[in-house]
Structures are given as C-alpha cells and as structure tokens.
Amino acid sequence: MKFRSKLVDIGCIHQLTKILGTISKITKTCTLILSEQQVVFTQNERATGGGASLWCELKQVDFFEDYRIEGKDDNNQIYLEIINENLLRALKSGQNAQCIKIKLVKKQTPCLMFEVSLPSMTAHTRVVVHDIPVAVIPTRFWENFQRPILPAYDIKISLPNLKILKNIIERMKNISGFMVLSASQNGNLSCKVETEEVTATTYFSNMEIEKNDNNMPHRSQRRSVDIDEDDELVEARIDVQKLVTFLNVQQFNANKVMCGIVNGQSVHMFLQCGDMFFQYFIPAMNVSIL
C-alpha cells in the first residue's frame, strides 16, 4: 500500500484548505478515500448523533501532480480515518508554499507526511514537515463508506444566496432548535421555527425546481389538502444547527446549490463548485417542536 502526491498550484492549496476548513466545522473526523481518479472525504454519524452525513469528492487531476497510488484492492483504493484539524493545520502552514509533498508512511503508526517547502530570503529552501497519524481502514469495512444512494425526492429546489440564508438561519436558531423546511413545485421555499409563544417564517420565491427521474413525488406521504398541486408543500423538520453547519460552505463560489426533500424524512443538500461535488444529508426529526 503506497501513496504519494504533490500540491504545487497555490490556488489548489487554498481551495483544498477551504474544503478541509468547511468539513472541520461539520465533523472532527472523517474518512479519506484515495483512488486513482478521485479523492473523497466522507462521514456518517450514528443515528444517536442525529444521523447526518456528508460526501465530498474531488477529481485528483484538478488538484494534484505526480499522483501515485498502490491500493489494497484491484481498484487501487486506500481508506483512511483522519482527524480533520490535523490535516487542516498542515495545509494552513503551506498557504505560501512553493510545493507540498504528501506521502503515506509507516512510522510508529501509519502517517500522512506533509513536506511543506516554503520560500526563503536565502538560497536555501525552508522545509516544514508534518506527520499526521491516520488509521488504515480494513477492506471488510469499506462497504460502510460508499457513495450515498440518492432517494426519490418529492422536490428538488435551488437555495437562495447562502450568505444571506446563513445570516437568517443564525437568527432563527435562537428561537428554536428545530426548523421546518418547506418547498412547493411553484418555486416557493420557506424556513419556519416555532415555540408555544412565537412562530417565525422566512419565505423565498421563484426558486428553480429541478425535475428528473429521481424527482418523483411520493403522493401518499404528502398532506391531503384541497389546493392546487403546485402549491402543495413538501416539508421536513430538521435540526437547525445541522443546517447552519452546512451553510458554512457559503465561502465557496458554487456553480449550483440544490436542496432535495423527501417529505417528512430527510433533507439532502447538493453543492457543485467546478469539479468539486459536496453532499450533505440531514435526517428529519420526528419530534414536536412545541
């Protein structure tokens, strides 16, 4: 099992630092999946932890040079458990680096070694080395870390400007720890929090609706109300802090941010930024918010 690569483009170093910084705000640890074509960061919470999960995949060719891997199976894959803050610290030390060499090494424990070459006022290059301990995940557990199977959404709707949305949700979470996220086929999106004393709702209109084979409505799960079908709401009650956590991705210049809702079951966030694909699943909380 061998892996080594280099980061030489300063823009790629900054972008990867942003990605790790965002993931670090969501979870302290994650699984790093290395393969010939992709680098994936994934994490699945246990049901007792709220059940949220993320999947972030990058095309390795867009970030790395001299990328070489000899994995533990025929597909040349390596699965590592990492502490995000350790990886982030190494990347932050190389924000002005000439080059960052990354290599999987065996010391007292397996480590990802980051060799950061920094510019110097002299003829000699300064080199900072970070040995980041990792845990190698045995192949028998790999099936627990596969790309999520997408559900059949009742609706898939675009989100408004994430910075504006985050500011609004940050205020609303002071009212309640749960939020009802609702959407309709006519492009309306609403965020509602309530207690016994107060109800607060924010509305967005003219949002894009994405229709595809995976967007087939579950009519039996919707509320039976005598209103126009386009006005019929699909909704899920979620942990508002998990939504705030996802909205930390607003620092990316995303091409598209979509929200898929399975009525009463889950919310699934999609973000695409160039060749980076980021997914975040939030399960519905079937408890009273009053």
Automatic annotation (TrEMBL):
SUPFAM superfamilies: DNA clamp
InterPro entries the UniProt entry points to: DNA_clamp_sf, HUS1, HUS1/Mec3
PANTHER family xref list: CHECKPOINT PROTEIN, MITOTIC AND DNA DAMAGE CHECKPOINT PROTEIN HUS1
Presence of the UniProt keyword Metal-binding in the record: no
Family: Belongs to the HUS1 family.
Gene Ontology annotations for the cellular component aspect, listed alphabetically: checkpoint clamp complex; nucleolus; site of double-strand break
Record keywords, A-Z: Nucleus
Top-level taxon of origin: Eukaryota
Pfam families: Hus1 (PF04005)
GO BP term, example: double-strand break repair via homologous recombination
Protein's UniProt name: Checkpoint protein
Compartmental location: Nucleus
